[in-house]
Amino acid sequence: AADAPLAGRHVLVTAGPTHEPIDPVRYIANRSSGKQGFAIAAAAARAGARVTLVAGPVHLPTPPGVTRVDVETAREMLAAVEQALPADAAIMVAAVADWRAADAADQKLKKDGSGKPAPLALVENPDILATLGRHAKRPGLLVGFAAETQKIAEHARAKLARKGADWIVANDVSGPPGSSVMGGDSNSVHIVSKDGVESWDHLPKDAVATRLIEKVAH
Ligand code: C5P
């Protein structure tokens, strides 16, 4: 039906940051609000899809009709994503922390009086998008996001190949301070695929979501 173009389809979305523990009270994170990913999950549900939203720690309500799985870390996010397969389309919007502490401490780290902080060793997190790109249950359509400040299309094309995605939605996060995309309500995006680049200038995140889901349904 025209009002439910994704009826019968399963759409998997990741959103938000991840939190990587250093000790019981401290973590590594980033400034992702989760707004764009939640808007995409909401738009997919409005289009009639069954939607699984794997969300990092964010302060956002669950959109109507969406099944939400809350996670903290990148490794938990990967496990939840694999658990949710198969999916007809997967849209990986989460700003996954690239690194985690090599050994999260069981007890709160204490200053030892020497004036020298304890060294913090990092290890790389799994790349969830790239894992799906070569997965036995690879979704039929695999979409990644990328925040870029320069050579946007070129960097996005490289990311397409590296991650095995079908589209990369590149956020233009350049521009004056205060016009920040992170946490804000609007976005300028370039959708890069093997067929070329489509650019949507300065749209509210909800409009980006609606248009992206129309494109997924097309
Ligand atoms: O490499 P970069 O972090 O710029 O790639 C961004 C894209 O890859 C986003 O779609 C993001 O959700 C996904 N990603 C991921 N797992 C990671 C890092 C990024 O799924 N560990």
Alpha-beta classification? alpha/beta
Number of strands: 12
How much helix, percentage-wise, in residues? 10-25%
Provide the succession of SSEs. EEEHEEHEEEHEHEEEH
Description of the structure:
This protein has 218 residues and is α/β, with parallel strands linked by helices. Helix content is 25%, strand content 30%. The strands form three sheets. Strands 5-4-1-6-9-10-11-12 form an eight-stranded mixed sheet, with helices on both faces. Helix 4 links the parallel strand 9 and strand 10. The longest helix is centred in the last third of the chain and has 13 residues. It starts with 9 loop residues before the first strand and ends with a helix. The model has no long low-confidence stretch (mean pLDDT 93). It binds cytidine-5'-monophosphate (C5P). Cytidine-5'-monophosphate binds next to helix 3 and strand 9. The site of cytidine-5'-monophosphate (C5P) has 13 residues, from helix 3 and strand 9.
